[in-house]
């Protein structure tokens, strides 16, 4: 099968490497022409995935047309806020009824739409089938071929099974789930809770506080997720609880790192200007905060993270406000 991967950040590069090592014909769209040349000639991505030897079989290129030529499966792994723009560029180069797997995790801030809606809208003339790849998966661990299990949300069972078989390897186990909305929302919302967990840990609030944030964060994810059409059970799976636990506890998480730095007194602007990589939770916090208001869903952790990120609220105050809320049933 010929797979085209769009986006050569840490995740797109890693996925392309998994597919190429498995023996699939794999092309990779690299936005930065110099980086494309480095991947092609040195089989390394020193910018986003340093110290990982990549398969020499990856056909890296900065030209979308070259990368998409005769692709049977298109995997998109660009930061969420760029997804629509990249798909708009790709649209005239795609066949009718393309199969698109989106591996981005977040909400489009301008429209408050989840990624599957962005894919469906951007490509609607082509009648695409789409699937969402999500779940606990740090690029660096997947790239080292450490055991990883993820979810593929796809409403088309037949194509979902085909993609599951194409993407799975001995170290990368793909589960299917027909609840596309639930799968994608878990991956988007966990990033906000990871920022909160980073803040709590950075303030030295200990393991009890982190466990409470993860558990109440799961309740928050499930509440909004169901209000947006996801199934409760999906939030208990890999793309929900699994990814939440990973990003709230694993120091490889960029979102958790943002929280840790905020707790140490750095401003959001300084943190972001020092980061080359994306921390999707920053923009998704604003999007989810607004969705909570629009849908009238209570999201206390998201609200505090929003105020810390965008209203310069003191992080310790945010945590005390969470603790001081009206007492409730669980
Ligand atoms: N890194 C991971 O471990 C991981 C795992 C699972 C899912 N994801 C998701 O994958 C998506 C991509 O993240 P990443 O970690 O690969 O990114 P990254 O932070 O490693 O790299 C940033 C990427 O953004 C691209 N970029 C910058 N400006 C752009 C523009 N104007 N238009 C298009 N692209 C632009 C860069 O070329 C680069 O590919 C995110 O939604 C992320 O949540 C990441
Ligand atoms: O580094 P993060 O916080 O973007 O997390 C990466 C992946 O989403 C983990 O599953």
UniProtKB/TrEMBL annotation:
Pfam families in alphabetical order: NAD_Gly3P_dh_C, NAD_Gly3P_dh_N
Keyword Metal-binding: no
Glycerol-3-phosphate dehydrogenase NAD-dependent N-terminal domain span: 3-158
Chain sites annotated for binding NAD(+): 7-12, 82, 139, 254
Binding site for substrate: 105, 254-255
Domain Glycerol-3-phosphate dehydrogenase NAD-dependent C-terminal per the UniProt entry, residue ranges: 179-318
Intracellular or extracellular location(s): Cytoplasm
Cellular component, GO annotation: cytosol
Enzyme Commission code(s) on record: 1.1.1.94
Gene3D superfamilies: N-(1-d-carboxylethyl)-l-norvaline Dehydrogenase, domain 2, NAD(P)-binding Rossmann-like Domain
Binding positions (NADPH): 10-11, 31, 48, 105, 139, 254, 278, 280
Keywords, alphabetical: Cytoplasm, Lipid biosynthesis, Lipid metabolism, NAD, NADP, Nucleotide-binding, Oxidoreductase, Phospholipid biosynthesis, Phospholipid metabolism
Main location: cytoplasm
Keyword rRNA processing: no
One BP term from GO: glycerol-3-phosphate biosynthetic process
Swiss-Prot/TrEMBL catalytic activity: sn-glycerol 3-phosphate + NADP(+) = dihydroxyacetone phosphate + NADPH + H(+); sn-glycerol 3-phosphate + NAD(+) = dihydroxyacetone phosphate + NADH + H(+)
EC category: oxidoreductase
GO MF terms, alphabetically ordered: glycerol-3-phosphate dehydrogenase (NAD+) activity; glycerol-3-phosphate dehydrogenase (NADP+) activity; NAD binding
Pathway listed: Membrane lipid metabolism; glycerophospholipid metabolism
Positions of the catalytic residues: 190 (proton acceptor)
Binding site for sn-glycerol 3-phosphate: 105, 135, 137, 190, 243, 253-255
Family membership noted in the UniProt record: Belongs to the NAD-dependent glycerol-3-phosphate dehydrogenase family.
Role of this protein: Catalyzes the reduction of the glycolytic intermediate dihydroxyacetone phosphate (DHAP) to sn-glycerol 3-phosphate (G3P), the key precursor for phospholipid synthesis.
Entries under HAMAP family matching the protein: NAD_Glyc3P_dehydrog
Protein name: Glycerol-3-phosphate dehydrogenase [NAD(P)+]
Organism name: Desulfohalobium retbaense (strain ATCC 49708 / DSM 5692 / JCM 16813 / HR100)
Phylogenetic placement of the source organism: Bacteria, Pseudomonadati, Thermodesulfobacteriota, Desulfovibrionia, Desulfovibrionales
Gene: gpsA
């Amino acid at each position: 099968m010929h797979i085209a991967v769009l986006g050569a950040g840490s995740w797109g590069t890693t996925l392309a490497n998994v597919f190429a090592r498995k023996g699939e014909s794999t092309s990779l769209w690299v936005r930065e022409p110099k980086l494309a040349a480095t991947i092609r000639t040195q089989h390394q991505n020193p910018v986003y995935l340093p110290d990982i030897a990549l398969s020499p079989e990856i056909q890296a290129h900065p030209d979308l047309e070259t990368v998409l030529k005769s692709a049977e499966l298109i995997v998109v792994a660009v930061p969420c806020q760029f997804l629509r723009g990249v798909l708009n560029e790709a649209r005239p180069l795609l066949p009718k009824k393309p199969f698109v797997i989106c591996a981005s995790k977040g909400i489009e801030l301008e429209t408050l739409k989840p990624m599957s809606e962005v894919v469906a809208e951007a490509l609607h003339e082509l009648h695409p089938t789409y699937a969402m790849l999500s779940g606990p998966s740090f690029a660096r661990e997947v790239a080292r071929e450490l055991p990883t299990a993820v979810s593929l949300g796809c409403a088309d069972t037949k194509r979902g099974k085909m993609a599951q078989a194409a993407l799975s390897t001995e170290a990368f186990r793909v589960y299917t789930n027909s609840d596309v909305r639930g799968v994608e929302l878990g991956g988007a919302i966990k990033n906000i809770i990871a920022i909160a967990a980073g803040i709590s840990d950075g303030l030295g609030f200990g393991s009890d506080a982190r466990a409470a944030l993860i558990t109440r964060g799961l309740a928050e994810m499930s509440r909004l997720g169901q209000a947006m059409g996801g199934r409760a059970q999906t939030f208990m799976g890999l793309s929900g609880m699994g990814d939440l636990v990973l990003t709230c506890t694993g120091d490889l998480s960029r979102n958790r790192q943002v929280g840790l730095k905020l707790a140490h007194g750095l401003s959001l602007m300084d943190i972001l200007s020092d980061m080359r990589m994306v921390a999707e939770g920053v923009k998704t916090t604003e999007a989810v905060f607004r969705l909570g208001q629009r849908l009238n869903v209570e999201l206390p952790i998201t609200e505090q993270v929003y105020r810390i990120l965008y209203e310069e609220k003191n992080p310790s105050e945010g945590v005390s406000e969470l603790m001081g809320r009206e007492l409730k049933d669980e």
